[in-house]
Amino acid sequence: MFSSLTRHFSDDAQWAALRTTAAFSGRALLSVAIALFLAFSFQLQSPMSSVTTVMIVANPTVGALVSKSVWRVIGTIIGASISVGLMAVFVQSPALYFMGLSATVGLACMAATFLRLFRAYAAVLTGYTIVIISAPAFDDPDGIFLSAMSRLSAVVVGIVTTAAVFMVTSPRRSDTLFVQIHDLFRDTVSYILAFHQGYTNVPARNPDALPGSTFRTLPTNFHDSRAAMLARIGRLSDAVEYAATDNYDISVREREIRAGLARLSGIVASYHPHTITASDTEQDRVVHTEIVSMLQFLMDRTAGRTLEASWMEGCARIRHTRDLMITQARETHSPQSLLFLDDIQDLLGQIETALQDLSRRGSAGRRLRLQPYLEWPTALRNGARGMLITMSACLIWYVLHWTAAPTMMLYVVAAASLLSTLPSASRAAGLMAAGTALGVPAGLLCHTYLLPQIDGYPLLWLSLCIMLLPGIWLQFHPKFGVGGFGYGVFSTVMLQVNNPIHYYNDVSLLNGWMALLMGCIMLVLSFRVILPPNHRLDAARLVTSLTRSLRRLALSGRRQGKEWLVWENLQLQKVLRLAMRLSFFARPAMIHEYIDAALATLSLGRLVERIRMLAASPDITGAQQVAIYDALDTFSELAHNPLLTAAGLRRAADVLCPPDAITLRPPAQVEAMACLEQAARIIQDIPGFLDQRGPLQWAEDYPAAHRPPLAAVRTESG
């Protein structure tokens, strides 16, 4: 134990993490002290509601805290309004009231699933506020308005106090975030550089792939580093959105920065086993050396300099290398080398645009509005869970006339709404329930040994600090964060600290604790037993959605243009969710294959967009244009017979530019041929992923579910 403590002080990273956790805990407990003191001073009916608000709103990032606070107030106002309306309409009919309440909570859980980041708290607080306002008013419906005002007052006190404390005590510096963006860009370039420096070891073909396939096996550490980079980019994008709330320097460049980060995600995602590799010729080795030299130039120029100071030199060097690639493409006689050069040209364009978006204001990224992916099956399931658990709690209250049932209702509605904001609600339900259940013995110790000893407000606050500190501290632990949040938020409900404080009633306390434990059981049953997730089905739906988006892109009849990044970012969100779903039931090797195939669909979409752009080139003849559009029309069969689509693309490539006539055709025809050929190869590599009868689309107990993940379901029929 002593060695563990000394390691925390000797290791810089662990010491920094320890200081961050301690600073956040101190700010949160100071906010609790001020909020509770003000609630007592204002003679609010339920002062502990302000403490609960502090525990929910507190966030290490000030921008996140401010945003969460604003949306929490909005949700509280909406919930208070709906609560008064429901009580007014159904005051004479408890059954109809319960149905209306359950439907409202279900809709709130659906909205919490759809909304991103701090906006989800508006939906969370809508359902939560309805219950906490309505429960005390059942005995006296005429007091519903006063109950709503009291609840709103306690929430506002907690929000304003927390925001003030964190804004005063937390340093807000935009340069820190810009440094993170700078480091991320350099790490992305380094990631690409490492891939190219090891190019001679990459082209090993997967022995299980189809004959003629370009699918290759890559080491496990490559997959791990790629996943880590994508997760890091996602976290930084969220941090930028948070910081834009209260930082002017970030707010004026938010869209450009987020667009640049999305482009970095696309660059990282472009490296998968289907990426075309150079053959081992003298010409290709020269090209490869130039790529490595260009990437090293970017690393050298951005070392110790901001992106703003180095972007012009960097973009000029990228364009120089791109011109060399175009020249090499015109002189090459090898179809394999042509595909490699075409890949590199596209990559260079992505790097240049990302550097422009991240380094200066007013770039093309400002006009882009990235969209979140709305996963309807998950939202509907969370909505059904919210309705079910609310109706069950209402019926228990109504049938048993249990005096502590409102406490149970308060917990299950709040916990169900909070869980709906998480990527995997069922997985977090057990942690949330366990954290809440641990609050019962903690509350018993607090009522037995701490609260009887207090004789003033300072000791009361100190007692609350002792009780809340474990939950606040554990929120920073990745494994126990959800449980720590559940403990910190709901342990405040277990204390009978009212205004004024009366003698503690052991029977009343035990009654409330039993209600919370019953709520924990109901939460786990609802999310993991009665309506459990089907991760395989969810993964299959995501795969189907990726295929459908590709089909729609190819058949849309119009180019995405500057909105292309929006499409790519939307598909990447699906890929990240697919990786999470697969992690629940698939082997690591299978996960890698499916994620590689999913990322290949993003490359396929980019190729489709480029093909559509090249079809409008004046160098493309009328017959060639017809062949291109006929090839794109074969995407209508992508989900039924992917190999038929691949054959159509390859026929169009032969019409545009036969392999023996590469040097005789105009550049646009050669580039279009390369795009068509690459698209055909990708589809030929992953037919089982794209086919609607692929192995992932079958239940686990079907024999078809155990076929090789990416193998063709059936051969081309002619």
TrEMBL record:
Keywords: Membrane, Transmembrane, Transmembrane helix. The keyword Transmembrane applies. The keyword Transmembrane helix applies. The chain crosses the membrane at residues 21-42, 73-91, 97-115, 120-138, 144-168, 395-419, 431-451, 458-476, 512-531. GO terms for cellular component: plasma membrane. It comes from the Bacteria. This is Fusaric acid resistance protein FusB. GO terms for molecular function: transmembrane transporter activity. It comes from Komagataeibacter diospyri.
